[in-house]
């Protein structure tokens, strides 16, 4: 395949599509290397070439930190070339498929506008399973066979990563490999394997390259595993089909985040994106133990960045990007052991400037007014967001989100009394053992929040936005065995809740209500806990025009259900079998050969504790950062440890040049 830029073919067609700027490239801090960059490097040898994709539109994909970090880590090596690609909108897809006198225009990178099919590796980062149809579209536009079995050594090795890769079985037919966990070190290890194979003149072809990746024990190659099904449709076993292939594939965990201060050269978008800020990940992992939370479970253990590193990353990012907002990110940012010192140090440093600080993720029980005031010292006081998740105290015990109603009221009272006017509360509907009454408690809680705000502030312009998400059971969590609530029941509960809020004349105007219907959640549930048979459904949806399924205006529940009817015909299973059915301990789950470090018996015990809590038992799994280890398995299994402060370091003053 030609490696020449397709931009000369593309440029004249850009005025015919929406937001053409997203296809132009040339962002500040982007990198375009020579195709044979290794030839002029100190090390010499073959060049290893990566095309990295976040399978969504540019405006969503460019801010993604995972892709930005890998892009930078890879391009730091003088023998590796890494470029980015994103999903094209339907109007651009039509332009590309129509093409010109040379034929269709292939999927291209935004850096060098090179055809994705010419690269050695095509890496896709999935934060949600609803991006799978976009992957198939990109493969097809790139001229890469959809099915891994049909590819030759002339095609890129297609690798999935991100949170959804912890169960890649639904896309096993389409990807050559999957990586579990942190990507910084593993992408370099993969590059080493590819480089060595190319230097040896590609012995054994594609099969041998994949074998070399698989025998490391850290890279999952689906073609090297066979799945056997029982008569009732359940999985009997997933076993290697070649010598030397491990029975279980382990996740990667990056330790000592201070040694990996990325992104150090943040990309600055040319078009408007969903996040217009520079973000610094202040720690990775979470051990709060929320039973629904896949991100918290699969990213253990907690690893903090020091205050000194955080300060250096913030200053470097502002200087190199020009962003005026800095977000301090993690799964629960206020849990950083030195968050008070971080907040005060950064607020002192940037007081009187245009730089504003934000803490997007805050738990009710970790919030305090001093912290909030530090982050709003420059006068930018946005609304506060808290996530009780469950409407009733009973539900919060079931999910191990140990935040009492009094905790929440005390927190919002402090916020409203110190000048905040807007609070956003996030809840889920459809949690295990949930009843209509549990959901209706959301309305009562929101009313009490408004009443408290009016009382402590003496004002009537107090607002509370209630945002509702549907619960989807996820792999590698205690709720991986749970039945998912069907979309009809989900919608009925949401309607009751909405009507309860609207019918109260005293509070209706003060409470905003945002929610999605239950149908997208069912599709996400099918893809989250599906096995290889679900791949046929994904392909059917894509062939029927499915694209951008994470966008409500493009999502079609009927298309998915009709495709499931065709794709699952003759298998003995259906959508309900994957979604609304509860599993038991003995069932072989599609992802059991993929090791997140979590002990199955511990997860099952926590699931049983959730059911006991539903019946009134007072059971809480505390955060192991501050309590003795409760044997989830991660640290001994993965050879890791919790890395938290306090470090005793301080936020260093800026040096004056």
TrEMBL record:
- Radical SAM core domain: from which residue to which, for each copy? 272-514
**Which Pfam families is this protein grouped with?**
Radical_SAM, Radical_SAM_N2
What InterPro entries does this protein's entry cite? CHP03960_rSAM, Elp3/MiaA/NifB-like_rSAM, Radical_SAM_N2, rSAM, rSAM_horseshoe, rSAM_sf
* Superkingdom of origin: Bacteria
Under which name does UniProt file this protein?
TIGR03960 family B12-binding radical SAM protein
Which organism is the protein's source? Nocardioides furvisabuli
Taxonomy of the source species: Bacteria, Bacillati, Actinomycetota, Actinomycetes, Propionibacteriales
């Amino acid at each position: 395949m030609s490696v020449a830029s397709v931009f000369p073919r593309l440029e004249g067609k850009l005025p015919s599509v929406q937001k053409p700027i997203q296809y132009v490239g040339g962002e500040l801090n982007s990198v375009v290397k020579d195709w044979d960059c290794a030839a002029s490097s100190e090390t010499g040898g073959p060049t290893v070439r990566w095309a990295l994709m976040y399978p969504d539109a540019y405006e969503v994909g460019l801010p993604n930190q995972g892709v930005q970090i890998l892009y930078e880590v890879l391009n730091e090596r003088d023998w590796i070339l890494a470029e980015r690609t994103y999903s094209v909108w339907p109007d651009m897809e039509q332009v590309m498929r129509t093409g010109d006198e040379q034929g269709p225009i292939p999927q291209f990178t935004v850096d060098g506008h090179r055809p994705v099919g010419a690269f050695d590796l095509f890496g896709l980062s999935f934060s949600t399973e609803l991006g799978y149809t976009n992957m198939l579209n990109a493969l097809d536009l790139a001229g890469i066979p959809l099915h891994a079995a049909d590819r030759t050594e002339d095609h890129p090795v297609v690798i999935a990563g991100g949170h959804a890769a912890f169960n890649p079985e639904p896309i096993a037919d389409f990807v050559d490999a999957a990586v579990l966990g942190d990507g910084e070190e593993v992408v370099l290890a993969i590059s080493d394997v590819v480089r060595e194979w190319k230097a040896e003149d590609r012995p054994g072809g594609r099969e041998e390259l994949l074998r070399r990746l698989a025998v490391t024990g850290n890279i999952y190659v689906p073609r090297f595993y066979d799945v056997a099904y029982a008569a009732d449709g359940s999985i009997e076993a997933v076993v290697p089909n070649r010598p030397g292939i491990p029975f279980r594939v382990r996740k990667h965990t990056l330790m000592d985040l201070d040694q990996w201060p990325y992104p150090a050269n943040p990309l600055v978008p040319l078009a408007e994106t969903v996040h217009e800020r520079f973000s610094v990940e202040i720690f990775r992992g979470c051990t709060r133990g929320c039973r629904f939370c896949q991100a918290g479970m699969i990213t253990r253990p907690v690893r903090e960045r020091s205050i000194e590193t955080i300060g250096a990353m913030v200053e470097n990012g502002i200087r190199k990007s020009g962003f005026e907002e800095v977000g301090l990110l993690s799964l629960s940012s206020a849990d950083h052991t030195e968050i008070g010192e971080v907040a005060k140090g950064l607020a002192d440093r940037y007081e009187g400037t245009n730089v504003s600080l934000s803490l997007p993720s805050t738990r009710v029980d970790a919030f305090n007014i001093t912290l909030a005031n530090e982050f709003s010292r420059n006068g930018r006081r946005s609304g506060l967001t808290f996530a009780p998740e469950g409407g009733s105290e009973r539900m919060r015990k079931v999910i191990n989100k140990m935040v009492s109603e009094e905790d929440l009221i005390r927190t919002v009272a402090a916020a409203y009394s110190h000048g905040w006017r807007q609070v956003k509360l996030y809840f889920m509907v459809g949690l295990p053992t949930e009843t209509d009454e549990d959901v209706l408690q959301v309305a009562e809680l929101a009313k009490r929040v408004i009443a408290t705000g009016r009382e402590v502030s003496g004002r009537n312009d107090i607002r509370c936005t209630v945002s509702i998400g549907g619960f989807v059971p996820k792999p590698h969590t205690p709720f991986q065995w749970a039945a998912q609530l069907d979309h009809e029941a989900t919608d009925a509960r949401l309607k009751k809740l909405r009507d309860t809020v609207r019918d109260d004349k005293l509070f209706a105007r003060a409470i905003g209500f945002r929610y999605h219907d239950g149908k997208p959640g069912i599709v996400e549930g099918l893809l989250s806990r599906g096995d290889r048979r679900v791949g046929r459904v994904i392909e059917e949806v894509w062939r029927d025009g499915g694209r951008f399924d994470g966008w409500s205006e493009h999502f079609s529940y009927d298309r998915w259900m009709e495709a499931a009817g065709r794709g699952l015909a003759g298998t003995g299973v259906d959508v309900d079998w994957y979604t609304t059915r509860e599993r038991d301990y003995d069932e072989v789950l599609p992802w059991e050969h993929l090791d997140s470090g979590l002990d199955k018996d511990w997860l099952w015990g926590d699931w049983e504790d959730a059911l006991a809590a539903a019946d009134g038992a007072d059971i809480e799994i505390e955060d192991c950062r501050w309590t003795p280890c409760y044997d989830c398995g991660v640290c001994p299994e993965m050879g890791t440890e919790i890395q938290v402060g306090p470090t005793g370091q301080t936020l260093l003053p800026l040096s004056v040049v």
